[in-house]
């Protein structure tokens, strides 16, 4: 750990990230000295059509001028499905909501400063072509409404679903002993609330503004928001919120 790395020595941090995606965050927190409690409240599964619509869109990728991804999971699934595309068909540009999403898709041409679909829609150029929007089934519509208003035809394709996982309420004792809790998505915030209500440590850290907004709507105030929507940004924000740099 370098001298300018966040230090969380002696702190206990709850990770609510989906179990299959928690490893990277857990490792970073442990590297920073934290004790980690993994209490996943969501998991990601295939879209209801098992990815057929996504594959059909990729098979016809030449019709699209832009591909838009709004979450790291959706970006990862698009990149994986498009891995065998011939380079001659890769004439599309990529827009991503957030730096973590950009990293997951292998780099994006457009990333809004404020990491929300609405912000991406505001800076998205006007046009008359087609946009492939690869998102979770439950994703909001802010971007596509804005893009359609600017002349684009938007094909929305569900790449995955986020479903709740119910942890044991017997873990309430562990929750009360933790110093902070992290949320990487609005869906995890809502899923946590379904099981535990607003029972959580005093320090609550959200990866982005949409997650923080979801927590506010559920009655959780004073949420710290990572300035960079990445796992490292989430760790840094947790350290800053705990005053442990």
Give a description of the structure.
The mean pLDDT is 90. By secondary structure, this protein is of the alpha/beta class. The protein has helices at residues 23-31, 52-59, 72-81, 99-105, 117-123, 142-149, 172-177, 186-196, 209-217, 231-241; strands at residues 12-15, 35-38, 42-46, 66-69, 93-96, 130-136, 153-164, 180-183, 203-206, 224-225. The chain has ten helices and ten strands. The radius of gyration is 19 Å and the shape is elongated. It is 35% helix and 20% strand. It has a five-stranded parallel beta sheet with strand order 2-1-8-9-10, with helices on both faces. A five-stranded mixed beta sheet has the order 3-7-6-4-5. It folds into two domains: 12-41 and 165-241, Rossmann fold, CATH 3.40.50; 46-161, Rossmann fold (3-Layer(aba) Sandwich), CATH 3.40.50.10090. Helix 1 links the parallel strand 1 (12-15) and strand 2 (35-38). One of its GO terms (molecular function) is uroporphyrinogen-III synthase activity. This is uroporphyrinogen-III synthase. InterPro entries: 4pyrrol_syn_uPrphyn_synt_sf, 4pyrrol_synth_uPrphyn_synth, UROS/Hem4. Its EC number is 4.2.1.75. It is an enzyme of class 4 (lyase).
């Amino acid at each position: 750990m370098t001298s300018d790395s966040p230090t969380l020595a002696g702190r206990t941090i709850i990770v609510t990230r989906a179990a299959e995606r928690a490893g990277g965050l857990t490792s970073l927190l442990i590297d920073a000295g934290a004790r980690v409690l993994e209490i996943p409240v969501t998991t990601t599964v295939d879209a209801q059509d098992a990815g057929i619509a996504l594959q059909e869109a990729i098979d016809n990728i030449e019709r699209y001028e832009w591909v838009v991804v709004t979450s790291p999971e959706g970006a990862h699934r698009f990149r994986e499905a498009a891995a065998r595309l011939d380079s001659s068909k890769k004439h599309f540009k990529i827009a991503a909501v957030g730096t973590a999403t950009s990293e997951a898709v292998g780099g994006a041409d457009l990333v809004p400063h404020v990491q929300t679909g609405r912000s991406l829609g505001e800076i998205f150029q006007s046009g008359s072509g087609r946009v492939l929007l690869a998102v979770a089934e439950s994703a909001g519509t802010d971007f596509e409404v804005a893009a359609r208003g600017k002349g684009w035809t938007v094909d929305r394709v569900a790449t995955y679903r986020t479903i709740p996982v119910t942890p044991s309420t017997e873990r309430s004792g562990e929750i009360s002993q933790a110093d902070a809790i992290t949320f990487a998505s609005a869906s995890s915030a809502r899923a946590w609330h379904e099981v535990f209500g607003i029972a959580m440590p005093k320090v609550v850290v959200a990866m982005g503004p949409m997650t923080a907004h979801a927590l506010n709507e559920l009655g959780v105030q004073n949420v710290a928001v990572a300035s960079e929507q990445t796992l490292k940004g989430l760790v840094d924000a947790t350290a800053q919120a705990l005053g442990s740099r």
